[in-house]
Write a structure and sequence with these properties.
By secondary structure, the chain is mainly beta. The protein contains 1 helix and 26 strands. The radius of gyration is 18 Å and the shape is globular. It holds the Pfam family SGL.
Length: about 325
């Protein structure tokens, strides 16, 4: 295997970051398209489109909905519609929103279970929809510890919807490895990165047993993830407000850190003592990264890393020495 072409000393500092867009609402998830457009989740029920000049246009549910929707993970479908995973207070599901503000339900139950608050969604090149549910607990804060492992991964394919992996420790974002052999997942409050062998067929996938790739500590809570073309896995961690790199040899390297140490210590203690409450995670402490929650590679050469967040109104970016893996949505176009 060729040596991984990134120095173990490589690091990015906060002052190296560029502000790409501001005035956003909870841009938890960011997608990058090949024309330079960015799409971000909008916490008030929709999504935001960021032009190459940084202009932000919001597309929200047009009519007052029956409930409050909180878009978390977002996906761009082959037909140009934006899908979102609803991380509501007590209900979830997958929904599509067009530019007229019309909302349609994509999935509201699986295996006979009404979907709890739903975390992430993406559609691969075979038109298979993957999604995650972090926990069945209501409120979700009851799962903010190492003991609760009731999150799952699901798919929607030609045969319908089903759960393909269960018993996970707060399931968050998922990504397919560059060689297409593995599905990686962040288990946020288990503080680990896991993977599953992709089995079955491209049209009807199944997953093998779970394997632990990296076990994190302290207040490193892995949320977002993205591969570079050489197999390095870049993670964003809320609470600690760090960007980490899991190198192909398994070593974990800190790329960016803007941590409030006192806040991080409180969160780490709360995880161990199973005492975290919703309010504890509604502040990044003194960190300027606003609970950095996602990373998306883009730009003409795929060497721009865009950072989404939970508690700030900005998308920031930094220059990556390595190009990111091109994702299927990259060449899709927003419906007009």
């Amino acid at each position: 295997m060729p040596a991984y072409p990134l120095s173990r000393e490589f690091q990015v500092f906060f002052d190296d970051l560029k502000t790409v867009a501001q005035g956003l609402n909870r841009p938890e998830c960011v997608l990058s398209l090949d024309d330079g457009t960015l799409i971000a989740a909008h916490g008030s029920g929709g999504y935001s489109v960021v032009s190459t000049t940084g202009k932000v246009t919001n597309w929200l549910i047009e009519h007052p909905p029956e409930r409050t929707y909180v878009p978390n993970g977002i996906a761009l479908a082959p037909d140009g519609q934006v899908l979102f995973a609803d991380l509501g207070a007590s209900a979830g599901g997958l929904f599509a929103l067009d530019k007229r503000g019309s909302l349609s339900t994509v999935l509201d139950s699986v295996n006979g279970l009404s979907l709890p608050p739903t975390n992430f969604v993406f559609i691969n090149e075979h038109n298979v929809l993957w999604f995650t549910v972090s926990t069945r607990k209501i409120p979700r804060s009851e799962a903010w510890n190492h003991d609760v492992k009731d999150g799952f991964i699901g798919v929607v394919d030609a045969a319908g919807s089903r759960i393909v992996a269960d018993g996970l420790g707060y399931t968050n974002e998922i990504a397919v490895s560059p060689d297409g052999r593995w599905l990686y997942v962040n288990e946020t409050y288990a503080q680990r990165v896991s993977r599953f062998a992709l089995q079955g067929t491209s049209a009807a996938p199944e997953l093998g047993p779970r394997e632990t790739i990296a076990q994190l500590r302290g207040a490193d809570l892995p949320d977002g993830l993205a591969f570079d073309v050489y197999g390095g896995l870049w993670l964003t961690c809320i609470a600690s407000n760090r960007v980490l790199l899991v190198r192909p040899d398994g070593d974990v390297q800190t790329i960016l850190s803007d941590t409030d140490d006192a806040h991080a210590a409180r969160i780490a203690l709360g995880i161990r003592e199973k005492s975290l409450k919703h309010s504890d995670m509604q502040t990044p402490g003194r960190s300027r990264l606003g609970n950095v929650s996602s990373i998306a590679f883009g730009g003409a050469d795929m060497r721009t890393a865009y950072l989404g967040c939970l508690l700030d109104d900005q998308i920031r970016s930094f220059d990556s020495p390595l190009p990111g893996l091109v994702l299927p949505h990259r060449r899709r176009k927003l419906a007009h």
